[in-house]
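Now for a typical sample entry:
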Amino acid sequence: MPLLVGYARTSSLGQVAGLEGQERELQAAGCQKVFREQVSSVAKRDQLDAALDYVREGDSLVVTKLDRLARSIGDLLNIVALLETKKVSLRVLSMSGSQPLDTGTATGRLMLAVIGAVGQAERETMLERQREGIAKAQREGKYKGRAPTARRQAATIIRLKRDGVSPTEIAGRLGIGRASVYRVLSAETGGDRQEAA
């Protein structure tokens, strides 16, 4: 028998009420099972992976809002493509002033195509404006570029190393490359890296 499978997510541990609210909405919509997690959309979402693995042909994955599911339009389209291969539909309960989205219907598939097209256009416009802004700043001598991620986290890298955490684990925890960790540590000690990961 097909199931309605819910997925609820908030970005931080402090948003307990928001997570509970999503769970109530999902249960009210008829979800028999709900996967939940409190993690940023850019981090690894283990419970989303578990939900995508759990659903079977004929099931529906249900979320309260699109931003609880996907970090970008591209991410959304990848998730939907995976669901389609499993013959699972996606339902979004709240869609900013329009009817709920259900990719199990022709209207829902059309809505998703429009969302994808609008999202792509917005992204291209944003990137164009960003390029124009950078070019203007460069002409005016104001553009410095973005500080490398590892350099911004140098204090954390050094603290973790002093606490006995390996460079490989530091890289994993902070979402940066191992070579970047070694560069920060080498700059701190003024020498070559001593330790293999």
